[in-house]
Design brief:
eight-stranded mixed β-sheet, ten-stranded mixed β-sheet
């Protein structure tokens, strides 16, 4: 089980209900059943990290959290979990990765070991990481050869940005996800069709030194295939569209959902509306409603989201915010509307909701996570991933709630005019 500050956790179940806070070019799009033809790494470690496992709908879902404040400024739980998943992938299996930034040599070595034992590793990689002062990005590209793809639209000078889906000159491929045809779960059971997504990068600076969350879904073939067909393959092929508008639910494009795990994905860039405002519009504010927002960065350019939060708060929904960095305009809006804001070393892109959502009148638990900061670039410029998980059981919601509380309870209370930056970033 996950290690948390027990004082906060002991009070939190009551607080949940009361509202208180204490080698070859890959054939993209092809999906095949892979047998465990080889062995896993000798370093395949199935000792549970800071994780909680539960059943969501029909799927086994694991959530992993790190808390740098409780670990002297650096908590390796996220990096260790990525390494565990890679180490526990057998030879003959396939790993597809979307990497924004990699500087953690421990992760690079795990990937190199996987390749050496016969794992096919394919990577789409933010083009701007070519310019990293660390050698890991170029080492990874050299290691994988044709199985590595820089997001650059064929422009050596990044004239079209570092995005794969976006061709904006300032774009980034900022999504963070890994797809395993096979790997072991925390109990040491070999699983197929495994999908990992969340906020941590493969770096110490943001992946270990800041708060993050990640989610691993085991055995959901629909979700795994949808990630490959609707996210990873378009990224590999650098599919861009007029107006730089990838997300279009009417096509449908940039949108997929699996009832097996209750997971829905929304992929930026998107120009027509605001993906987060649209999701929050389904929240029914009442006395039971609770909304906890844990964001690396909130910019004035996403004031529509903040206005929506303020409206929900006025409608009776209890709203709390923990942030790494925040612009003055949206800070003033939040605090002046009675919403408590704390700053902490946060890299999450997380919204935790309890209450009535959409046309379901009974209260339920819903989680939004992924790579999507509350910035204009996350919405309309970068390749980003916003993930909704519905039908979350209380034990999993409680783990996310406690993660939020770990940052909130140790953070700095912000005023309408002052909120010291402690996190943020991509």
């Amino acid at each position: 089980m996950r290690h948390v500050r027990m004082g906060f956790l002991a009070a939190s179940l009551t607080a949940v209900l009361t509202g208180g806070l204490v080698a070859v070019q890959p054939t993209v799009g092809a999906v095949s059943a892979v047998s465990a033809l080889g062995t896993v790494s000798p370093n395949c470690n199935t000792v549970a990290p800071q994780s909680v496992t539960a059943t969501v709908a029909s799927a086994q879902v694991e959530a992993t959290f790190n808390d740098p404040v409780a670990h002297g400024g650096q908590d390796l739980a996220q990096l260790n979990e990525i390494i565990r998943l890679v180490n526990c992938t057998p030879g003959g299996a396939t790993i597809r990765m979307a990497i924004y930034s990699i500087t953690a040599n421990t992760v690079y070595r795990a990937i190199a070991d996987a390749v050496a034992r016969g794992v096919l590793v394919q990577v789409v990689h933010n083009g701007e990481d070519k310019n990293s002062s660390d050698s890991s990005p170029t080492d990874l590209a050299a290691l994988l050869g044709a199985n590595h793809h820089w997001c650059d639209h064929g422009s050596a000078g990044l004239a079209y940005g570092g995005g794969c889906l976006s061709n904006d000159p300032s774009s980034l491929m900022h999504a963070k996800y890994l797809l395993f045809s096979q790997t072991q779960d925390l109990a040491g059971v070999m699983q197929s069709n495994v999908t990992w997504f969340g906020s941590p990068n493969e770096t110490f600076a943001s992946g270990a030194n800041l708060f993050n969350n990640s989610v691993t879904v085991y055995g959901d073939a629909t979700l795994y295939d949808d990630f490959i067909n609707y996210v990873w393959t378009p990224m590999w092929q650098e599919n861009s569209y007029p107006g730089n508008d990838f997300y279009d639910v009417s096509t449908p494009r940039g949108y997929f959902s699996s009832g097996y795990s209750g997971v829905t994905g929304y992929v930026s860039p998107q120009q027509q509306t605001d993906l987060v405002v649209d999701r929050l519009s389904y929240v029914n504010p009442n006395s039971s409603c609770q909304l906890r927002v844990m964001e690396a960065t909130i910019h004035d350019t996403r004031s529509a989201v903040v206005t929506q939060l303020a409206s929900l708060h006025k409608g009776g929904c209890k709203v709390y915010v923990t942030v790494g960095s925040i612009d003055p305009g949206v800070l003033k809006t939040l605090v002046s509307n009675g919403i408590a804001v704390h700053s902490a070393p946060v890299h999450d892109k997380l919204i935790i909701f309890y209450g009535s959502y959409a046309d379901v009148t009974t209260n339920r638990y819903t989680i939004f996570t992924g790579s999507h900061n509350l910035t204009k670039s996350a919405l309309s410029i970068n390749d980003e991933l916003l993930v909704k998980i519905q039908g979350v059981p209380q034990v999993l919601y409680q783990a996310f709630y406690s993660h939020f509380g770990d940052a909130y309870s140790t953070g700095t209370v912000c005023t309408a005019t002052s909120c010291p930056a402690q996190g943020g970033g991509e």
